[in-house]
């Protein structure tokens, strides 16, 4: 079979939309909200301490999960 022959049955199904397609269309129709720019100093000692604390908590969570 050729690609065109395979595409023909699929083209009939492509006219039907799924819930996911509808959500994509709705999000595209809404105006995009501006994302807030966050300026974090990744070299700051406080940021490094916070990152290590978050990583440690996540590792503990992963151990408990097993």
UniProtKB/TrEMBL annotation:
PROSITE patterns tied to this protein: IQ
Coiled coil, from the record: none
InterPro entries: Calmodulin_Regulator_PCP4-like (IPR052142)
Name recorded for this polypeptide: Purkinje cell protein 4 like 1
PANTHER family in the cross-refs: IG-LIKE DOMAIN-CONTAINING PROTEIN, PURKINJE CELL PROTEIN 4-LIKE PROTEIN 1
Compositional bias per record (Polar residues), positions renumbered to this chain: 8-20
Region (Disordered): 1-40
Entry's family note: Belongs to the PCP4 family.
